[in-house]
Amino acid sequence: MRFRHETLPQRVVFAPGDAPAAVAAEVAALKASKVMLIAAPAEASHADRVGADLPVAVRHDEVVMHVPVDVAERARRSAAESAVDALVCVGGGSTTGLAKAVALTTGLPVVAVPTTYAGSEATNVWGLTEGDVKTTGVDPRVLPRSIVYDASLLLSLPVELSVASGLNALAHCVDSMWGPRVDPIDRALATEGIRGLARGLPAVAADPTGLEGREQTLYGAYLAAVAFASAGSGLHHKICHVLGGMFNLPHAQTHAVVLPHVLAFNAPSVPEAERRIAEAFGSPTAVAGLAALRETLHAPRALRDHGMPEDGIARAVAPVLAAVPAGNPTPVTAENLTALLRAAWEGSDPA
Ligand code: NAD
């Protein structure tokens, strides 16, 4: 066994029901005295609670998915005008993404308090959009110094969004198995991530008010993001990135729909990953395990339900082909990619 694995420096705190005290401790550890508290309007009540004991100098609630550059610029100006020395973000991937955009140019430390299962808090990847072009990059400044996971903050996330967001996390695990930099540690993290998500998500769907399922799902989502940050984007993420940018599709739902198709496409070519995924699901095959979980969760099925036009299938083929990672296990051609995109668009069973 010969490989090189990098573990990103970050403190992770699981504090169910206790985010205010846990976040205050993280901010004190940074010796910060002027905090910018970032949260979207839908996340405001959580931010009120988390921020109650913090030295908040300014609150910022202009949060837009995929972080348009003008939105990032306004947040950076506000941080500079208030001379803040730390950023605390309370929210989903879009809110974390805005904090990362501010950290990218200012170097300010971030304490992230996630309220979805997107996992951005555990990666050093930033994203910004200009018009319909999304640019992403890697920078150590955007990796939050600490994450505080408080499962009680997820109780308000509607079931449908919880399922889509949890399947987005599952996509991080699955795509990590054949990511361009995958190593045995990533595979181990991703396998345990799948176990956590496969246990947690059905519990969330059955009882959205239960803390246990929310916490299992957060645990799985964290491991998923750590594996993904190390392994890098595989075919699944490249497809979702292109489709999301071209047709302005909702992030989590797009991942939830595309995942079973990419798994069915790649699984036959990667027997070791297939076996690990199947075992983690407790199922005879990886594809059957994901199908059973999706059925239990009433998962989103078709991209056409989320705003993708039918002629988008043909339009997306060339840009996806240009983005396919070199080492993808199953060779991708215009023909098999078109079939995959059509199945995801119409919501048919994965081939
Ligand atoms: P989101 O942050 O846009 O949240 C979706 C909606 O749910 C928003 O309206 C939000 O305000 C609301 N919401 C969030 N938490 C809630 C809660 N607990 N209760 C009620 N409502 C709540 O969506 P997302 O899927 O979390 O994040 C998607 C974004 O994150 C995308 O832009 C994606 O590119 C980015 N992302 C980045 C990385 C990375 O590593 N850089 C990783 C994953 C996702």
List the helices and strands and how they pair.
Layout: E1 11-14, H1 19-29, E2 35-38, H2 44-51, E3 56-60, H3 69-81, E4 86-91, H4 93-106, E5 110-114, E6 125-130, E7 133-138, E8 146-149, H5 159-176, H6 184-206, H7 211-231, H8 235-247, H9 251-266, H10 271-281, H11 286-297, H12 312-323, H13 334-346
Parallel strand pairs: 1-8, 2-3, 2-4, 4-5, 5-8
Antiparallel strand pairs: 6-7
Helix pairs in contact: 3-4, 5-6, 5-7, 5-9, 6-7, 6-10, 8-9, 8-12, 9-13, 10-11, 12-13
By CATH, the topology of the largest domain is Dehydroquinate synthase-like, alpha domain
Biggest sheet architecture = 6 strands, parallel
- Share in helix: 40-55%
Mean pLDDT: 97
Number of helical regions: 13
CATH superfamily of the largest domain: Dehydroquinate synthase-like - alpha domain
Unreliable spans: none
Cα shape: globular
Distance between the termini: 34 Å
**CA gyration radius, whole angstroms:** 19 Å
Strand order of the largest sheet: 1-8-5-4-2-3
Structural class: alpha/beta
User: What ligands are attached or bound here?
Assistant: nicotinamide-adenine-dinucleotide
Structure overview:
- With 351 residues, this protein is α/β, with parallel strands linked by helices.
- The protein has two domains: 11-154, Rossmann fold; 159-346, Dehydroquinate synthase-like - alpha domain (Dehydroquinate synthase-like, alpha domain, Up-down Bundle).
- Helices cover 53% and strands 11% of the residues.
- It contains 13 helices and eight strands.
- It has a six-stranded parallel β-sheet, with helices on both faces. Strands 6-7 form a two-stranded antiparallel sheet.
- Strand 6 (125-130) and strand 7 form a beta hairpin.
- The mean pLDDT is 97.
- The structure holds nicotinamide-adenine-dinucleotide.
- Residues 40, 42-43, 65-66, 91-95, 97, 115-116, 118-120, 123, 125, 127, 153-154, 156-157, 161, 165, 168, 251-252 line the site of nicotinamide-adenine-dinucleotide.
